[in-house]
Specification:
24 helices; 551 residues
C-alpha cells in the first residue's frame, strides 16, 4: 500500500495531499509513513517544549512574587487538584480509554458502507454528553469538599483558609481538563497533533497573564484563578479542530447520531474505565504522599519539592512526546491484529525515550545548582532556597528513567482497549514502597528523603511493568530491550561525570551551566555511537547523509 504524504511543514492538523472519501478519515496509522510520524513527533515536541518553557515562566513568576514560603505552600496544596485532573483526564486516564475507542471506531468506519451510520459520530454522541455531566458534577463536588481536601492533603498547614480558597478556584479544572482530554484523544486518534500539542501553551499563558493582572489584589489566589482561565483556553484551542474533523467525517450520508452498538462502534468497557482510573490515581498518589509528609516539615518544604520536581521532570516530559504520537499507531495496529508492527513500534519508542530522558538526567544531575540559580534565584527566592532545591532535584533525577518507562510501557498495556489489572497492581506496589520509605526517610533526610522515596518507588514500578511485557502486554523482545537500556545507562553515567567536571571549572552560573550541558551531551552521544546503541544509529545515518549531500 502506498504511504501517505507527510504533514505539511506549516503544521496543519490535517494530512496534506491525501485523498479521502466523503465521510471517512484520511490515512490511518497503518499507512502513516515514518516521515509523517517523525514530523508529528517534532511538531508535538516543539509545542510541548514551548508549553514547558511557559510552565517554567509560570513557576518563575510564582517564585519571584511569593518565594518559597507559606503562601506558595498553600497554593501548591490546591495545585494538587489540577495535577491529578491532568493525569486522569489529559495525560493518562481518559487518553488510555478514548484513544483505543476512537481508533476502533475509525477502523469500523473504514468497513462501513457509504450512507451508513458513522461509528465515530456515534461514539461521540454516546460518550461526550455523559462524560461532560460527570465532569460538571466532579467540579461541584470539589468546590464543596475543598476544606476536607486540604485537611487530607496537608494537615500540618498552620492556616488552611488560603489553601481552601485556592482549591475552590482550581476545582473548575475537573470540567475544563475533562473536555480538553476528550478533544485531545479524539484528535490524536484522527492523526491530528497540532491542537493537542498546543494546549499547555494556552494553559500556561492563561496562568501567567492572570497572575500578573490579579497578583496585587488577590495575592497567590491569582495563580489559582489562572488555572481556571488556562483550562478554558485549552478547550478553546482544540474545539474548532475537532468540530472540523467531525464535520468532514459526516459530510455526506447518515449523520451517525445513533447508539454505539447500532453503528458498529465499540462501547467503552466499565472494567477498562476502572483499571485506567485506578492506575492514574495510584500514580498521582505519589504526589499526595510527598505533600502529606512535607506538610509537617518547616515552611517552604512543599515549595522546594515542587520546584525541584518541575525542573527534573522536563526531560521525562520531552521523552514521552514520541510515545504520545505513536500511541494511536500502536492501538490501530492491535485493532487490526498486527502484533509484530506494534511490537517493533514499542521497542523503538522505549529505546528513543530512554536516550532522551537519560541525556536529560545527566544534565540535570551535573548542573542542578546552576539550573536553579539561573531560573529562580531572584526576588523572594533566596540562595538557600537554590541550594535546597538543587539537592532535591538531583535526587529526583535518579528516578527519571523509571518515570519515563512507566509512561511509555503503560500505553502498551492499555493500547488494546481492554481492561488489565496488572499495571494497577504494579503502580500500587510502587506507591506502597514510596509511602513506606518516605515515612522512614523524612525524619533523617527531610525533603531529600521524600524525593529518594519517589525515585525508588517509580523505578520499582517500571521494573515490574517491563519484566512482564512479554507475558501480559505486547510481547517485546525483553533481552534486546534490557541490553539497549544498559548501554544507554552506562553512557549517561559517564556523561554525568563529564558534566560535573566541566561545570566546576566556571564560577558564573550561565557559563558553568553551558559547559556542563555541552560536555554531558558530547560524551553521551559519543558513547551511544561507540556502544552501537540501536536507537542512535538512525540519527547518525541521517546526519551522515546530509553531510555528504552538503559536501
Amino acid at each position: 500500500m502506498k504511504p501517505v504524504e507527510p504533514m505539511t511543514p506549516a503544521g496543519d492538523d490535517t494530512l496534506a495531499k491525501v485523498p479521502a472519501q466523503p465521510g471517512r478519515d484520511a490515512p490511518d496509522g497503518h499507512r502513516a509513513s515514518n516521515s509523517f510520524l517523525a514530523r508529528a513527533a517534532l511538531l508535538t515536541a516543539v509545542l510541548s517544549a514551548a508549553g514547558s518553557i511557559l510552565g517554567l515562566g509560570r513557576d518563575q513568576a510564582l517564585a519571584h512574587l511569593f518565594g518559597a514560603g507559606s503562601e506558595t505552600d498553600a497554593f501548591l496544596v490546591a495545585w494538587t487538584v489540577p495535577e491529578v485532573a491532568s493525569t486522569l483526564l489529559i495525560e493518562d486516564g481518559l487518553a488510555f480509554m478514548l484513544v483505543p475507542a476512537f481508533s476502533a471506531a475509525i477502523a469500523a468506519r473504514a468497513r462501513t458502507a457509504p450512507g451508513a451510520p458513522d461509528p465515530v459520530r456515534a461514539l461521540v454522541a454516546g460518550s461526550l454528553p455523559r462524560l461532560a455531566l460527570a465532569f460538571v458534577a466532579a467540579s461541584v463536588l470539589l468546590v464543596a469538599a475543598a476544606p476536607q481536601i486540604v485537611a487530607l492533603l496537608a494537615p500540618g498547614l498552620p492556616d488552611p483558609r488560603l489553601a481552601v480558597d485556592c482549591t475552590r478556584l482550581t476545582a473548575t479544572c475537573a470540567l475544563t481538563f475533562g473536555l480538553t482530554g476528550y478533544c485531545s484523544a479524539a484528535l490524536r486518534a484522527h492523526s491530528s497533533y497540532l491542537a493537542p500539542a498546543a494546549i499547555y501553551v494556552a494553559y500556561n499563558t492563561g496562568i501567567i497573564v492572570t497572575l500578573f493582572v490579579l497578583a496585587d489584589r488577590w495575592g497567590v489566589r491569582a495563580a489559582a484563578a489562572g488555572v481556571a482561565v488556562g483550562g478554558c483556553l485549552m478547550v478553546l484551542v482544540q474545539a474548532p479542530a475537532l468540530r472540523r474533523r467531525l464535520a468532514v467525517a459526516t459530510g455526506t450520508g447518515d449523520t451517525g447520531e445513533r447508539a454505539p452498538k447500532e453503528s458498529g462502534a465499540r462501547p467503552m468497557d466499565l472494567a477498562l474505565v476502572a483499571t485506567v482510573l485506578l492506575f492514574a490515581l495510584c500514580r498521582q498518589a505519589q504526589v499526595f504522599i510527598e505533600r502529606f509528609l512535607a506538610s509537617e516539615l518547616p515552611s517552604g518544604a512543599i515549595s522546594h519539592l515542587n520546584y525541584a520536581q518541575k525542573i527534573a521532570q522536563l526531560p521525562m516530559v520531552l521523552s514521552l512526546m514520541l510515545c504520545t504520537v505513536t500511541f494511536p499507531v500502536v492501538a490501530k495496529a492491535l485493532a487490526r491484529g498486527d502484533t509484530e508492527r506494534a511490537r517493533d513500534r514499542v521497542e523503538r519508542d522505549i529505546a528513543l525515550a530512554a536516550c532522551i530522558v537519560l541525556l536529560g538526567t545527566a544534565v540535570v544531575f551535573a548542573c542542578a545548582p546552576q539550573i536553579v540559580e539561573v531560573l529562580f534565584q531572584r526576588g523572594a527566592f533566596t540562595a538557600e532556597d537554590t541550594a535546597t532545591t538543587a539537592a532535591v532535584m538531583r535526587v529526583y533525577s535518579l528516578g527519571l528513567l523509571g518515570h519515563c518507562l512507566v509512561g511509555a510501557l503503560v500505553r502498551s498495556y492499555f493500547s488494546a482497549g481492554r481492561a488489565t489489572w496488572y499495571p494497577v497492581a504494579a503502580m500500587a506496589a510502587g506507591m506502597v514502597l514510596t509511602a513506606g520509605v518516605g515515612t522512614w526517610a523524612v525524619g533523617a533526610w527531610g525533603v531529600g528523603g521524600i524525593a529518594a522515596a519517589n525515585a525508588l518507588g517509580i523505578t520499582f514500578t517500571a521494573a515490574l511493568l517491563l519484566t512482564a511485557m512479554d507475558r501480559r502486554s505486547i510481547p517485546v523482545r525483553l533481552p534486546l530491550v534490557l541490553r539497549e537500556l544498559g548501554k544507554t545507562v552506562l553512557a549517561a553515567v559517564a556523561a554525568t561525570g563529564a558534566g560535573l567536571l566541566s561545570a566546576d571549572r566556571f564560577t558564573a552560573p550561565v557559563a558553568s551551566l553551558a559547559a556542563g550541558a555541552l560536555a554531558s551531551c558530547a560524551v553521551f552521544c559519543l558513547l551511544l555511537w561507540a556502544l552501537h546503541v540501536r536507537a542512535f544509529a538512525p540519527a547518525v545515518r541521517t546526519a551522515t547523509r546530509k553531510l555528504r549531500h552538503a559536501r
